């Protein structure tokens, strides 16, 4: 994981909203990619999830014709302690 890549991924309000939503979920919870309330096309939504995966923030599993996203909570906390708490309490979409 690269902190600069993580910050770049979080610089978009939609991706920040996705991560903040996943932080609020129970650890290990899987969320359907359409469950975040984003009014985005499928292609745009896929693009945002790809950036979050490449930054190491989420993992995704394909089940049938849907993708489920999971926050990589343990890995993030191990590499960058306190980052998820900072994101959930202090960062606001612009």
TrEMBL record:
<dbReference type="InterPro" id="IPR036388">
    <property type="entry name" value="WH-like_DNA-bd_sf"/>
</dbReference>
<keyword id="KW-0805">Transcription regulation</keyword>
<dbReference type="InterPro" id="IPR011991">
    <property type="entry name" value="ArsR-like_HTH"/>
</dbReference>
<dbReference type="InterPro" id="IPR001845">
    <property type="entry name" value="HTH_ArsR_DNA-bd_dom"/>
</dbReference>
<dbReference type="InterPro" id="IPR036390">
    <property type="entry name" value="WH_DNA-bd_sf"/>
</dbReference>
<protein>
    <submittedName>
        <fullName>ArsR family transcriptional regulator</fullName>
    </submittedName>
</protein>
<dbReference type="GO" id="GO:0003677">
    <property type="term" value="F:DNA binding"/>
</dbReference>
<keyword id="KW-0804">Transcription</keyword>
<keyword id="KW-0238">DNA-binding</keyword>
<dbReference type="GO" id="GO:0003700">
    <property type="term" value="F:DNA-binding transcription factor activity"/>
</dbReference>
<dbReference type="Pfam" id="PF01022">
    <property type="entry name" value="HTH_5"/>
</dbReference>
<dbReference type="InterPro" id="IPR051081">
    <property type="entry name" value="HTH_MetalResp_TranReg"/>
</dbReference>
<feature type="domain" description="HTH arsR-type">
    <location>
        <begin position="1"/>
        <end position="91"/>
    </location>
</feature>
């Amino acid at each position: 994981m690269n902190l600069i890549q993580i910050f770049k991924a979080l610089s978009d309000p939609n991706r920040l909203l996705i991560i903040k939503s996943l932080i609020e979920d129970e650890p290990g919870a899987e969320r359907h990619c359409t469950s975040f309330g984003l009014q985005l096309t499928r292609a745009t939504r896929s693009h945002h999830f790809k950036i979050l995966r490449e930054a190491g923030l989420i993992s995704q599993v394909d089940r049938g014709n849907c993708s489920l996203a999971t926050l990589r909570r343990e890995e993030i906390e191990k590499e960058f302690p306190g980052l998820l708490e900072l994101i959930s309490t202090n960062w606001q979409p612009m």
